[in-house]
Amino acid sequence: MRLEKLTQLLVLLALVISCNQKAVRVEVDSSVGSDEFALVLPDWLSEPMIPKDNPLTKAKVELGRRLFFERALSKDSSISCASCHLESFAFSDTIALSAGASGRHATRNTPSILNIAYAPRLMAEGGVKNLELQVLSPLENELEMNMSVNGACDRLNADSKYRADFERVWSDSATPFTLTRTLAAFERTLIGGDAPYDKFLRGDSNALSKSAQSGLALFTESGCINCHSGPLFTNYKLENNGLDERYLDNGLFRLTLLASDMGKFKVPTLRNVELTAPYMHDGRFITLREVLVHYNSGGKNHPNKSERVRPLNLSEKQLSDLEEFLLSLTQEFK
Q: What's the pTM?
């Protein structure tokens, strides 16, 4: 009876807050192109915020897509943005630390950038406020693309096709302003689709197995939903989840130098979590079950550990049900 009531409540809530699938019209600045781009959103997502100085246009988004796959943006032309953000894995990577230019490796796990348009803060410690600025981080990081933004622009402007395309979209060449905004525009179009969980909320009782439905109830009752909330299953807050007693990567502390911020990282989305292994900021957990075991144990002692991370004492059957529910958050990728 408890599970039935929970299911009815969730379905009712979904009906109240959702709307029919729709195309979102965005304001277009004629100075940067007039070919309006319409986002098509799943019914569980509202309209994302689009910066006024970077409206979406078809030409800009297409140019951004090409740049996303452009290896010439790395110093040795060995990798592109798409090398680490693989579409079939929800635009994440499959290894703990992605390979950068010149055989180097990043120091943090590559997150999914699906639905990144909705993130109020970016990077693992939340230190970047928008996609336009975030583009600079992997581009200029010596362990990633290792390319100055000015050097990247020089390469693009030396290519007659890119030079013509930037002129068509921006009435300007590739510059730090136009390059970062073009890539950001494309990334904002990476919007996730429906998963079995969403079908279940819309009334398809067969979309989730009985095990997954039990896992959904556990997800709420055990408190997972307190941090992994909302349609994207994240509150985007910065938390210490008890990974270590002593951190090699100090997370938010790197920015603030406050002892109270030691080991705090942004709460990740659980959408498509089945595809985004390995997990945590350093990719230490290979399987989803390892993640659940960590939280079930309550994590390690640290003065900054969130009070929400505590021993759950779930049985093996309950862990399996919870895992089954998390798998239901995976959409189909063609």
A: 0.88
Q: If DSSP codes are grouped into helix, strand and coil, which group holds residue 264?
A: strand
* Interior/surface letters 89-125, b for 16+ CB within 10 angstroms, e for the rest: bbbbbeebbbbbbeeeebbbbbbbbbbbbbbeebbbb
Report the distance separating Cα 13 and Cα 175, nearest Å.
Answer: 46
Question: How far is the CA of 51 from the CAs of 30, 139, 171, in angstroms?
Answer: 15, 21, 19
Left, alpha or beta for 102 (phi > 0: left; psi -120 to 50: alpha)? Answer: left
Q: What is the distance between the alpha carbons of residues 126 and 252, in angstroms, rounded to a whole number?
A: 7
pLDDT digits (tens, 9 = 90+) for 229-280: 999 999 999 999 999 999 999 999 999 999 999 999 999 999 999 999 999 9
Scan for tokens 């009435």, then name that residue.
171
Query: What is the spatial distance between Cα 189 and Cα 185, in angstroms, rounded to a whole number?
Result: 7
* Cβ 41 vs Cβ 24: under 8 Å: yes
